[in-house]
Design a protein that fits this description.
By secondary structure, this protein is of the alpha/beta class. It folds into two domains: 149 residues, YbaK protein, CATH 3.90.960; 217 residues, Hypothetical protein af1432 (Orthogonal Bundle). The chain contains 23 helices and ten strands. The strands form two sheets. Strands 1, 2, 3, 5, 6, 7, 8 and 9 form an eight-stranded mixed sheet that branches. Strands 4-10 form a two-stranded antiparallel ribbon. Helix 10 packs parallel to helix 11 and helix 15 packs across helix 18. About 5% of the residues have low confidence.
């Protein structure tokens, strides 16, 4: 793949000696590349403060330690909003921030660990292409850069869910305020499963349940009923005529399975007080839920019927994918702002990794543990727990992998505040998805963004 013209011009200006290296499906993780001692990958992130923006070059598989950077530079950095980066990347026809020093003329800070490597692979700004540079050549192009120790390894996800409860309780005891710790006994101070959700779960297990049974449960809760009706009436579904009732929503538009899972997701979303969240946070939560559910819905539909997983379970997994976001804000309110600050500075790192780094436990772990205690379907429990683990193998791994693909395709298409991670081709093959069809599915969803935003706005009500 040829380099973008803007990158080629920068290389020519800096007189860099390099070769083109390719990341293929045999090498899908940064850790694997470095374990094989082929090269040290170099990634680039952008930070800013009152003095302006800087570029920071880090070893692959690491994240920037803002506190260490502040101690060594005397500057209080924060991340640059993804929305501000997108125009720069679009202008240069880039899919990621290139790891070339002084990109966009910005001052560059280099982590000292990079000077210990014989060979470096610099992200070139396009999917899969790397610039292979020898250490002496790298040193020659960073002579005007500050060299500091500012990188910390991205924590590895623990795939085995056994022992999660012990880890969760330990983190809660260590990080929550004393008055909360004193109330902790054997379980977390989190709300019980809502009565509406209990009724829906019981209904799910009833083989004789029908549309009237579901409509009756939803209609008991006027707010929930209004949200289901408004979802069905959205232009996103282009339903003919006026949707007047939950029964209409089920029969004419959404179907039994979808309304059951939509109502369950809405009921669970309201279990948390959200007292630590601003309206913008709540908007972000519901937009993430709605878009991911729509993306998973589209992906499942494109899988052949003989290989297609349960539509209802896949949809519910997508709708609840970021439930850990609410749980962490509920349990760790004093640390919420710091989690956000570190996430903003490290958009290449999943939020769960930041939570693991700062608190020793992730929102996915807590949400999955909570779902299990609420007797939610194991498909959803696994999807929430393993959604960042593309290597997970289990009876219900397909649901976690669908959420993983949906999240990264959405991020790659410009949705949200994180950068997409590469999705290996074998993952598409395993789920019997076509990569190009999947991308078209996501593009179509984003084209309906105005309708989906309206749905998310109604859901947060």
């Amino acid at each position: 793949m040829p380099l973008p013209a803007s990158i080629q011009e920068l290389l020519d200006t800096q007189k860099v000696t390099y070769n083109i290296a390719q990341m293929d499906d045999r090498i899908t993780s940064l850790a694997l590349v470095q374990q094989q001692q082929q090269a040290c990958l170099v990634q680039s992130i952008l930070l800013q403060d009152a003095q302006g923006r800087v570029q920071v070059l880090l070893p692959g598989g690491s994240m920037v330690d803002l506190d260490a950077l502040q101690q060594q530079t005397g500057r209080h950095f924060e991340g640059v909003n993804i929305e501000e980066l997108k125009p720069l990347m679009k202008e240069g026809e880039l899919s990621c921030v290139p790891a070339l020093p002084r990109w966009q003329g910005m001052p560059t800070i280099v982590d000292a660990a990079l000077l210990k490597q014989k060979k470096l692979w610099l992200y070139a700004g396009t999917d899969g292409s790397m610039l292979e540079i020898a250490q002496q050549d790298f040193a020659s192009i960073i002579t005007s850069s500050d060299v500091v120790d500012c990188a910390t390894p991205i924590p590895q996800f623990v795939t085995d869910a056994r022992g999660d409860e012990e880890k969760i309780l330990d983190s809660v005891k260590r990080f929550t305020q004393k008055r909360i710790r004193q109330r902790l006994d054997e379980t977390l101070e989190l709300p019980p499963l809502p009565e509406t959700a209990q009724r829906i779960i019981k209904l799910r297990a009833d083989p004789n349940a029908d549309i009237n049974d579901l409509a009756n449960i939803v209609e008991i809760d006027p707010s929930l009923a209004a949200q289901v009706v408004s979802w069905a009436a959205s232009p996103y579904y282009s339903a003919p005529g006026k949707i007047k009732s939950v029964h209409d929503a089920i029969v004419r538009v959404l179907g039994f399975d979808m309304v059951l899972n939509l109502a369950l997701g809405l009921a669970l979303g309201r279990t948390m007080s959200m007292r630590s969240l601003t309206p913008a946070h709540i908007d972000e939560y519901w937009r993430g839920a709605v878009y991911t559910a729509a993306a998973v819905e589209g992906l499942v539909t494109s899988i052949g019927r003989e290989s297609r997983p349960s539509f209802g379970m896949a949809y519910l997994s997508g709708l609840l994918n970021n439930f850990g976001y609410l749980v962490m804000a509920e349990i760790f309110p004093p640390y919420w702002s710091n989690i956000e600050r570190v996430c903003k500075a490290n958009p290449h790192v999943p939020m769960a990794s930041v939570e693991q780094h700062l608190l020793g436990v992730t929102g996915n772990q807590v949400a999955s543990w909570l779902m299990d205690n609420w007797n939610m379907p194991q498909e959803v429990v696994v999807a929430l727990r393993q959604q960042h683990n593309a290597e997970y193998v289990d009876e219900y791994a397909v649901y976690a992998k669908l959420v993983h693909i949906a999240q990264n395709l959405l991020a790659g298409a410009g949705f949200g505040k994180t950068l997409a991670r590469p999705i290996p081709e074998r993952l598409f093959e395993e789920l019997q998805l076509d990569r190009e069809t999947a991308k078209v599915t996501i593009d179509n969803i984003l084209e309906s963004g105005e309708d989906l935003d309206a749905i998310a706005e109604k859901m947060r009500g």
